[in-house]
Amino acid sequence: MRGNQPKTPTGHPTALQAYLLGPVDFEAALLLQRRLHYDIAGDRGQAALVVCEHSSLITVGRQGSRRHLLFDGDNKQARQWRVRWVNRAGGCWLHSPGQLSIYPILPLDTLGMTPPEYVALLGETLRRVLGDCSVTARVHVDDAGVWVGDRLLAAIGVAVKDDVAYYGACFNLNPPLDIYRLLRCHPRTAEPMTSLERERRGPVRPSMVRERIVEQFRESFGFARVSLYSDHPALHAAQAPGRAKRALGVK
Q1: How distant, in Å, are the alpha carbons of 81, 128, 150, 168 from that of 219?
Q2: CA-CA distance, 130 to 132, in Å (whole number)?
Q3: Which one, out of 25, 35, 42, 59, has a CA that is 20 to 30 A from the CA of 51?
Q4: Are 43 and 158 in contact, with CB atoms under 8 Å apart?
Q5: In what order do the strands lie in the sheet containing 82-85?
Q6: Domains in the chain, ordered, with CATH?
Q7: Alpha-carbon torsion 17, 98, 91, 67, what sign?
Q8: pLDDT at 76 over 80
Q9: Cα 172 from Cα 208, distance rounded (Å)
Q10: 97: nearest Cα among 30, 164, 22
């Protein structure tokens, strides 16, 4: 990479399959990622992007630990949150309505990118989304995500298997921010996460942000075309665990 500019992909799959979903159970989203990962690992001409929301739960990545959960047993709200340990990079993420979970499933070898180069371009892509929403002051990007001042707005955490990246980022649109004081989102900061609505000092249109995310992914990674979907059969299979496992080849 030259300077601070993220590397531009040297190759790309022909099309990006973008799944713009509403609320999705976290376990169902994991099954969907596994299905898409399996498909893309077998056909490097494919790539996928899943954008959805989750109900309240905490996922803890490889840089997170129990020390970063700051609530105690007396907090009634936090007692209802499930804590899920996952194999992505990044720290503790509190998923909540009003936050977008962004899961690109991309063949890095086809793109000609290393994992660090991919993380850098993912961060730059999300920074451009903020710019589209008139948030540019004090914005900077590193491997933890996109920051406004000393607060994360979009946290990044990626996993890679067989040269195919999955997981991705959580992007705060307009969740209630007081709940983010109940955990430390990344070891490098004691500040809670912020949101797009807070930083632009006005309401946001979630549909517009989703559209800009898809468009910026298309431009950043050079996809020739984008196919939009609002559903996937794996989400329905996830409602019946036995059928889901058979469909995904899981024993």
Answers
A1: 37, 11, 28, 17
A2: 5
A3: 42
A4: no
A5: 82-85, 57-60, 92-95
A6: 15-248 (3.30.930.10)
A7: negative
A8: no
A9: 14
A10: 22
The pLDDT of residue 9: 85
Place of tokens 């500019």: 5
Q: Which residues pair with 189 in a beta bridge?
A: 186
Q: Residue 122 — very low, low, confident or very high, per pLDDT cuts 50/70/90?
A: very high
The pTM (predicted TM-score) of the whole model is 0.90
DSSP state of 64: -
The tokens describing 104, both together, are: 């690109």
Q: Which amino acid appears at position 248 of this protein?
A: L
Q: Within the chain, how many helices (H) and strands (E) appear?
A: 8, 11
Stated length of the chain: 251
pLDDT at 224: 87
- Measure the CA–CA gap between 123 and 95, rounded to whole angstroms: 19
How confident is the model over 179-234, as pLDDT tens digits?
A: 999 999 988 889 999 999 999 999 999 999 999 999 999 999 999 899 999 999 99
